């Protein structure tokens, strides 16, 4: 309830007011507090009269103008306040005007953290390369870091007496390794979308209306989320836990540290909890920043369109403005000594107090927003009600309208971005990998974030690495996951910056943090070691981290390509530049080629050697009509009428293959109007009679769409082939997938249409089935036992062979085509291995079974190998999103082995896959990362095989050999190097070279 100066309230407000809804939609709606609306209506009618009266009262207190003099309703009786009451009111009035943030001397003399756990040893990190995060990440030096009592006691050149006077000291020798602040993920749903995801543990969105500033994410924070430890294994120490984006105002958010506390409560995880949360009613308590989530755009469709959204914002902030005005007037009277004009109760509302604090500048708003139209509307809203939005998240089109952001009331917002996660829905379609650099050039602070579990928070630093790869300066790239988000949140006095007195959240890395594959060796939060994970039984199993990265090059900032031309082109085309290459059918000479990798007749990928048998050379490669005519130092180094391209120490290697996503089966995965649509659900009996087939088996080839932006982006990244099926894994989002997922197709990602020569590599590749427990979002799917029974029946041949389903399952049972099963649970895999043996015994032939997804395959590595079953790890770096995936093998720094290493050690043939179309471009880095985290056990030629020959063999893709396979030319390094970029694709099958 909102208390006002009007002594009585009618039983019902006027009809016009009662019908003034907070928002308009076609669903059940939430109304504004009618008393608040009536008060606002009454106040509007008397504003001028009351203001004139109060001006006379304040200007001439001794005159004691009365309420009646102004024609306002008289108070029931004279108010009498005690001295203590008066002091409390005046203190409260001072507090609501006080600026939030730490005291100016917060770091001065701070000798102990409020989060310090008694019994924690001090730690001295010696001889490190230290990135402090200060001054936009420009402060870097060699020195030591002393952690004691939960804070950074000293940093840099630490006097010996300080070290000698520190008891219980543990020393860690860095030997020149990099030390950074703990990473800060500014956009996460850790704890409110817990791992593994279950319907009862999803507390991210509310369906109670579009405006919900009174909700708090901490009220749904699961203290047992398995994602916390995985995130810490990536160097993440603090995350902002945000409500979801299906509400215009989703509620209050909180920054939490990920270490388990001795109290084991949710509130004990929060950094600088505000007074509103702790229940501290003392008006002299620290005035800490509060945080809140807002959203706009497509996600709010359940409550209406964009116009409805903005009206809901304006209505809500108008309520807050009225309350704030009432409070300000109350305080003006109190400070003028007009106690007899005051009510005993301070004017406030439990529901709207958060928005009042927004208007008072006490809240850091994180706003989900993608498109220019929404960004413009937000900026206008901020200027109308005079409040600042601290950060805008996702912001796919922010880089196209930086001047709009600069008009934000109260200052330029920080923009929190994905590196390359775009085009998955309509409003993200114009997002770009060049956005971080463009925004930085405009003076707009840039943050990289995960939106966990959209991206695995463990690989937050990978977002910064990609941003640097595409042009964001090194200091800003590393600051984007440390000091920049901490500053935007008003918490840089505690986290995100290594400085004396700050919280002791520190990461020691095995290589420079911007190197792809960089892995934390040790992670401290509040000075307490979290990685390596302390063993509960007192016996640690040492985890080896960084083997193979001992050279100096791993300690240096990685060199990256120049993308100036591409960035300017993207801006010129308003975010949608042409992606198809310029085809050249005549002579092309590549010079300064360092390496050439070719396919052998045996189906392997090997490095081409010199005439003397040595590998590697600095020579030329001549291509005529898409075919290599000469390789070596003796090849002519002139164009001879053709085009010359200097690879600057680059390489030529086979094009890579992508598998696992719906690449080529639609343009925008979140926009049904651009997709194939839902395939028949045979388990639910929903197969159209017209198909005359119990299974309703369909072919992915019939749904192919060429020249999608994801396919062309993959093509320009060296992924020249893709195998796509209609299979959908059981995962967090969407309905449970179909059991029968049809027949996959292999195609060229750079082709113009299906009729182009070589566009379709193979029209039918494999038969696909999805097996698993039901989705946590859409329960009551088909049981696992029913799925297995159906598969057994189909493989036994009980379905007529004159139908599509019976025909292709017979082919799969006989081993003519692979049977690719999307499955993650080791228990279901075991049942499938038993079934495979049974079917083979009945049929008398060997099946070609492949497990895709395969999160728990390492638990059955020996049995899978013995059964001659292949595995496609999808995704390449696993995350236990759902129950069937909970027993992953995460790899260093948590385990010595990865699932890939465990399977390869048993002789299993393994390929790597992806889940989403936008990820296809990363095949080369997925393979490289797999090699790096193997601690040197996977060599370069094996990395190639994971995304070329082995993947093709598993899927049954034929006819890709040295004569028909595309080759990729990279400038500045090999296809796996961070310094390289793809500049061309050599296509013998199509007879030309695409130049980018």
What does this structure look like?
Pfam families: Amidohydro_3. It comes from Candolleomyces aberdarensis. This is Amidohydrolase 3 domain-containing protein. With 996 residues, the protein is an alpha/beta fold. Among the domains are: 183-304 and 344-494, Metal-dependent hydrolases (TIM Barrel, Alpha-Beta Barrel); 578-654 and 966-996, Urease, subunit C, domain 1 (Roll), CATH 2.30.40; 656-964, TIM Barrel, CATH 3.20.20. 24% of the residues lie in helices and 19% in strands. The chain has 25 helices and 35 strands. Strands 17, 18, 19, 20, 21, 22, 33, 34 and 35 form a nine-stranded mixed sheet that branches. Strands 1, 2, 3, 4, 5, 14, 15 and 16 form an eight-stranded mixed sheet that branches. Helix 3 crosses helix 8 (306-335) and helix 8 crosses helix 9. The longest helix has 30 residues, at 306-335. The N and C termini lie far apart (64 Å).
Question: In the CATH scheme, what's the topology name of the domain at 656-964?
Answer: TIM Barrel
How would a textbook summarize the main sheet?
A: 9 strands, mixed
Distance between the termini: 64 Å
Quick one: how many beta strands? 35
Query: What is the typical, i.e. mean, pLDDT?
Result: 89
What is the H level of CATH, i.e. the homologous superfamily of the domain at 656-964? Metal-dependent hydrolases
Q: Ranges with pLDDT <50 over ≥5 residues?
A: 1-68
Radius of gyration, whole Å:
31 Å
Query: Can you tell me the CATH class of the domain at 656-964?
Result: Alpha Beta
Helix content: 10-25%
Task: Characterize the overall form.
Answer: globular
CATH architecture of the domain at 656-964: Alpha-Beta Barrel
In percent, how much strand structure appears in the residues?
Answer: 15-25%
Coarse structural class? alpha/beta
Number of helices: 25
């Amino acid at each position: 309830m909102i208390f006002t100066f009007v002594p009585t309230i009618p039983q019902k407000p006027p009809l016009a007011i009662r019908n003034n809804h907070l928002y308009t939609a076609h669903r059940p709606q939430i109304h504004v507090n009618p008393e608040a609306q009536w008060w606002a209506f009454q106040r509007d009618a008397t504003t001028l009269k009351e203001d004139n009266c109060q001006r006379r009262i304040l200007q001439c207190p001794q005159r004691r103008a009365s309420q009646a003099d102004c024609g306002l309703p008289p108070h029931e009786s004279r108010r009498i306040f005690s001295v203590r009451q008066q002091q409390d009111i005046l203190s409260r009035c001072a507090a609501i005007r006080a600026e939030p943030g730490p005291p100016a001397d917060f770091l001065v003399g701070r000798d102990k953290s409020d989060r310090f756990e008694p019994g924690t040893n001090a730690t001295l990190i010696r001889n490190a390369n230290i990135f402090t995060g200060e001054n936009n990440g420009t402060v870097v030096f060699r020195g030591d870091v002393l952690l004691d009592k939960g804070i950074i006691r000293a940093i840099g050149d630490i006097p010996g007496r300080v070290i000698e006077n520190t008891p219980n000291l543990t020393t860690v020798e860095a030997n020149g390794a990099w030390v950074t602040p703990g990473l800060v993920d500014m956009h996460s749903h850790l704890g409110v979308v817990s791992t593994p995801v279950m319907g009862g543990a999803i507390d991210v969105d509310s369906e109670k209306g579009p405006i919900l500033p009174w909700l708090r994410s901490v009220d749904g924070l699961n203290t047992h989320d398995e994602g916390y430890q995985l995130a810490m294994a990536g160097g993440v120490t603090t995350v902002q836990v945000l409500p979801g984006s299906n509400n215009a105002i989703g509620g209050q958010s909180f920054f939490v540290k990920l270490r388990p506390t001795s109290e084991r409560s949710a509130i004990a995880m929060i950094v600088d909890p505000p007074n509103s949360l702790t229940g501290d009613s003392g008006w002299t308590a620290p005035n800490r920043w509060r945080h809140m989530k807002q959203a706009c755009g497509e996600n709010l469709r359940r409550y209406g369109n964009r116009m409805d959204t903005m009206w809901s914002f304006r209505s809500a902030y108008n309520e807050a403005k009225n309350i704030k005005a009432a409070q300000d007037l109350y305080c003006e009277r109190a400070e003028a000594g007009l106690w007899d004009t005051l009510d005993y109760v301070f004017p406030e509302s439990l529901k709207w107090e958060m928005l009042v604090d927004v208007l008072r500048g006490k809240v850091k708003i994180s706003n989900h927003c993608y498109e220019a139209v929404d960004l413009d509307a937000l900026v206008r809203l901020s200027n109308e009600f005079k409040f600042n939005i601290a950060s805008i998240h996702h912001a796919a089109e922010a880089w196209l309208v930086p001047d709009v952001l600069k008009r934000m009331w109260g200052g330029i917002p920080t923009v929190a971005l994905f590196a390359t996660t775009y085009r998955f829905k309509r409003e993200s379609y114009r997002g770009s990998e060049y956005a971080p650099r463009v925004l930085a050039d405009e003076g707009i602070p840039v943050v990289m974030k995960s939106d966990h579990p959209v991206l695995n928070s463990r690989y937050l630093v990978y977002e910064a690495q990609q941003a640097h790869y595409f042009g964001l300066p090194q200091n800003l790239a590393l600051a984007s996951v440390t000091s920049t988000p901490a500053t935007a949140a008003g918490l840089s006095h505690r986290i995100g910056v290594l400085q004396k007195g700050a919280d002791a959240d520190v990461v020691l890395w095995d290589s420079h943090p911007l190197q792809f594959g960089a892995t934390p060796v040790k992670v401290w939060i509040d000075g307490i070691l979290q990685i390596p994970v302390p063993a509960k039984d007192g016996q640690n199993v040492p985890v080896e981290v960084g083997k193979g990265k001992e050279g100096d090059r791993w300690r240096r900032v990685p060199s990256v390509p120049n993308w100036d031309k591409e960035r300017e082109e993207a801006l010129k085309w308003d975010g949608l530049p042409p992606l198809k290459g310029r085809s050249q059918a005549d002579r092309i000479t590549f010079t300064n080629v360092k390496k050439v990798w070719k396919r052998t007749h045996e189906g392997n990928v090997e490095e081409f050697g010199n005439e003397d048998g040595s590998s590697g050379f600095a020579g030329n490669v001549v291509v005529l009509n898409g075919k290599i005519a000469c390789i070596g130092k003796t090849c002519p180094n002139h164009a001879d009428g053709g085009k010359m391209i200097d690879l600057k120490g680059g390489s030529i290697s086979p094009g890579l293959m992508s598998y696992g996503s719906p690449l080529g089966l639609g343009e925008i995965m979140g926009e049904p109007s651009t997709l194939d649509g839902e395939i028949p659900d045979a388990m639910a009996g929903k197969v159209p009679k017209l198909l005359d087939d119990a299974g309703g088996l369909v072919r992915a080839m019939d749904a192919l769409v060429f020249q999608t932006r994801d396919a062309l982006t993959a093509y320009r990244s060296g992924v020249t082939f893709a195998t796509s099926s209609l299979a959908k894994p059981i995962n967090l989002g969407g309905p449970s997938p179909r059991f029968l997922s049809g027949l996959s197709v292999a195609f060229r990602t750079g082709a113009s249409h299906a009729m182009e020569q070589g566009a379709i590599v193979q029209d039918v590749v494999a038969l696909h089935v999805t097996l698993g427990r039901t989705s946590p979002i859409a329960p009551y799917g088909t049981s696992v036992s029913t799925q297995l029974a159906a598969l057994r029946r189909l493989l036994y041949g009980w379905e007529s062979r004159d139908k599509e389903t019976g025909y292709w399952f017979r082919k799969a049972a006989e081993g003519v085509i692979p049977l690719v099963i999307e499955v993650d649970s080791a228990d279901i895999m075991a049942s499938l291995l038993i079934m495979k043996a049974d079917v083979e015994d009945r049929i008398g032939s060997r099946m070609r079974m492949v497990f895709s997804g395969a999160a728990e395959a390492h638990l059955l590595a020996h049995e899978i190998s013995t059964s001659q079953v292949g595995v496609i790890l999808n995704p390449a770096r696993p995350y236990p999103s759902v129950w069937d995936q909970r027993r992953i093998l995460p790899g260093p720094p948590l385990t010595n082995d990865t699932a890939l290493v465990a399977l390869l050690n048993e002789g299993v043939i393994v390929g790597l896959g992806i889940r989403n179309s936008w990820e296809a471009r990363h095949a080369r880095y997925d393979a490289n990362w797999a090699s790096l985290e193997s601690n040197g056990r996977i060599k370069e030629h094996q990395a190639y095989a994971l995304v070329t020959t082995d993947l093709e063999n598993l899927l049954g893709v034929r006819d890709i050999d040295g004569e028909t396979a595309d080759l990729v030319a990279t400038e500045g390094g090999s296809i796996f190097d961070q310094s390289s970029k793809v500049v061309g694709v050599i296509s013998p099958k199509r007879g030309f070279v695409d130049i980018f």
